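[Meeting: bench + compute handoff]

Bench side (C.D.) handed over the final construct sequence. Compute side (W.E.) agreed to return the predicted structure before the next meeting so the bench team could plan truncations. Sequence as handed over:
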Amino acid sequence: MHDKKYFKLRLLLAFVGNIIIGLCVGLYRLSELGVDSCSGMNLGISDFLNMSFGNWQLICNIVILIVVFFTVRSYIGIGTVINMVGVGYIADFICWLGWDVAGLELNLVIRFILMTIALLCAPLGVALYMKADMGLSPYDSIAPIVEHLTKGKVSFRKARVTTDVLGLVIGVVFCLLAGGNVWRIAGIGTILNAVITGPIIQFFRTKIDKKLGDI
């Protein structure tokens, strides 16, 4: 059980963590060198539907949340709502500032810098949001749902890997159908995200745990 006196701190961690995640998704998109699986899926579908990334991600999250409610309801919390509503629109805002307001034309070096910042900072956001422990994002709940519905026959790890691969394939297919640039969905940023994000998240979690202890 969490101490109620730390509720405001945990809420702040959830907000800050998801803001950082949204900013990093925006940087990934600006770099056009690949995004994470969840963002890739939603980016590809939103392009195909000619809909904003934020609007489609919210719709997708609502659909997943309904399934979560009837299966693993315990994973829903305030942090779930913050994530499902905030991340997509924050990313859209960053892209709007970069492309529409500033009219940025980024060379490859700058794009790699943006990708690197996202790679290093997104895990911090995830670590903060995990420390808050106020609910999983709808996408992160898919693997536990599969594990729950199969009564453990499909492990969380297998379900998560399958979800990530399938999400990326869906994003690529819809991007191709929309006639878009597939490399901005599945590129070097996607590969690096899959390889190094886990260890960096764990690094930040260790530092945060030492600083904040049990809250």
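W.E. noted at the follow-up: Helices lie at 7-31, 37-49, 53-69, 78-101, 108-132, 142-149, 156-177, 188-212. C.D. will use this when planning the next construct.
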